[in-house]
Amino acid sequence: MKRQLRNWIKQQKKQYSPLQLTTWSTSLLDKLIDHPRFREAQTVLLYYSLPDEVRTHEFVERISQEKQVVLPVVTGDELELRRYSGKTDLKKGSFGIDEPTGEIVTDFSSIDVAIIPGVGFDKQGNRLGRGKGYYDRLLPKLQSYNIGVCFSFQVLPEIPTESFDRPMDEVWTQEGCISEKRYSQ
Fold first, then answer.
1. Distance CA 34, CA 167 (A)
2. What is the chain's percent helix, strand, coil content, to nearest 5?
3. DSSP string of 43-112?
4. pLDDT in tens, 3-36
5. Between 20 and 30 A from 23 (CA), which of 31, 44, 60, 153?
6. For the segment 146-179, what is each residue's pLDDT rounded down to a tens digit?
7. How far apart, in whole angstroms, are the C-alpha atoms of residue 28 and residue 103?
């Protein structure tokens, strides 16, 4: 079922131009920056996006001027977290993603907000990843307020879940927060 959902979303993405995805990404992230949890956060876990994800490259740079930014680095089957210290300290890593070479972050409790990508989400906050389990292994270690981000066509009626899946506290698209279950701010 999850494979079918991934394939369906992959086909949906082909209907939109890179310019449209960039425009929607900017709209989503401009809304998210006003979120009370995000405004108050000192340390934010973000991600350096792949071309088919909510595009975060400029956002990472912009936010790093005001907040401590942490980005994931793929090491084997795990995500290692490293401080972002600027574009000059990025190198190509797994899957062709630019990854930071900065200081390793092991104090997960220092992360206030985590912005998490997904292939899809449902309105209950359940996340469909790419199937490798990287975030499935990372999320239980975090104590942060977790916000899933995707485009509106990636919101599904229901995502099958397993015992290890951890729902997001909120899910956002370019239209704003779409989660049915709103958590206290």
1. 22
2. 30, 25, 40
3. EEE-----TTS---HHHHHHHTTTSEEEEEEEETTEEEEEE---GGGEEE-GGG-EEE-SPEE--GGG--
4. 889 888 888 989 999 999 999 999 999 999 999 9
5. 44
6. 999 999 999 999 998 887 788 999 999 999 998 8
7. 29
Backbone torsions φ then ψ of 63, nearest 5 degrees? -70, -30
Scanning the structure block, which residue is given the tokens 């680095």?
73
* 3 SS3 class: helix
Query: Position of tokens 């070479």?
Result: 101
pTM here is: 0.91
> What number of residues does the chain have?
185
Rounded to the nearest 10 degrees, how much is the dihedral formed by the CA atoms of 33, 181, 172, 123?
180
Burial tier of 157 (Cβ tally within 10 Å: 0-12, 13-18, 19+): exposed
Amino acid at the residue 57: H
Q: Which residue in the block uniquely carries the two structure tokens 């779409």?
A: 178
157 with 126: CB under 8 angstroms? no
Instruction: State which amino acid sits at residue 121.
Output: F
Helices (H) and strands (E) in the chain — how many of each? 5, 13
